[in-house]
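Lab notebook, page 48
Experiment: co-folding of the full assembly
Goal: obtain a model of how the components sit together before planning crosslinking
Operator: M.T.
Materials (sequences as entered):
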Amino acid sequence: MNSKRRDFLKIAGLTAIAGIAAPSAFNTLLKGEAIASAGGQHGAAVPTGKRWGMVIDVKKFSENPDLAEKCVSTCHTIHNVPDFGNKKDEIKWIWVDSFQHVFPGDSSHYKQPEALNSMPILALCNHCDNPPCVRACPTQATFKSKDGIVGMDYHRCIGCRFCMAACPYGARSFNWRDPRGKDANGQPFIKAENPKYPTRMRGVVEKCNFCTERLAIGQIPACVEVAAQSKALVFGDLNDPNSEISQILKTTFTIQRKPSAGTHPSLFYII
Amino acid sequence: MYGKGRIIPALILFLGLVTSPMWYKSGDAGKMPKPEKPKDYTECVAPTQYMRTSHMVLLNEWRDDILREGGPRIGKTANGTEYVRSLQNGCMKCHSDKKKFCDDCHNYASVKPYCWDCHLQPKEAM
Ligand code: SF4
Ligand code: SF4
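Observation: model returned without errors.
Model output:
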């Protein structure tokens, strides 16, 4: 009799706990679903305000082979991005990779030009309209602001790297080492510090910020400025139908990285 | 009382030892910090008393407003002087010597803010 009573109490207790926990867990799940699907709908809400975007003309970069590297070094210099000198620790806000790495398995057929696979492509954070990194971040260190830029508050980053796992584009890098440190030869990882911009510290994730600090004072992103003359990069407001970028998107065929991921990138490539 | 002869002196000794830090420093609050004020500027972004107690709150407000709400990067003092709402590019423009300004109080209060793990201090003062 006694043991049965114990069993009954145990089951009653467990049922009570399950009864309390299940609805809230269910709600959280449902909410996540709702947010995820809201961003994924086409033409659901009428866009208002600015949404920054960028067109990358791959052909223009092929015509001018040094241009991409110039964009990379300019960005990394003004943002105090450290160069740790090895691939494993590499920090990159913007980088060059081959077509087959930037657009893996996204071509509609396999008989594409051979030369395409090794073609260098400039890549950076897509500032997705439906950013998985933002949903993954437990501290809201990564967030999406009204102008479409996916930003980071490095003060809040706890270095869990959930966002890196969530980003389908490898746009985020983790500071395994102290960016303010020096290499074995006594050379600082940040070659020349830009006194106007902070550095990061060891243990935080970093990525491209679409040059928010420049946009705020009426300048265009640094990489776009470098490539402005050849119009290899065009930056502008996607919500403004008359902006240069909207006109280009209306008249030219462009592709996005991994459209199937449903992230709705703000970057468009002319191949 | 049993053992009076030992307990009372021992108690007095114990109390004396426990409170010794107070006796040792009595009447002396240590050297008060005297952060060096900027020479060319007389007006700060907020009243001195507020800045003394709450500058860290203000910095957090600037950060959240600018980063998340797209707030203005430029602010105006009560007398209409414009300033950049930024530690590195704003505060340090006037308070250009971190050692003589920030560190003076922070050391006294024994607080170790992590601002400078990322933000760069003005070069000439480093
Ligand atoms: S590493 Fe930092 S930014 Fe990334 S998810 Fe964790 S807290 Fe958020
Ligand atoms: S590209 Fe990656 S890091 Fe950038 S917004 Fe999209 S998911 Fe986030």
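Interpretation: The radius of gyration of chain A is 23 Å.
Next step: discuss with group before ordering constructs.
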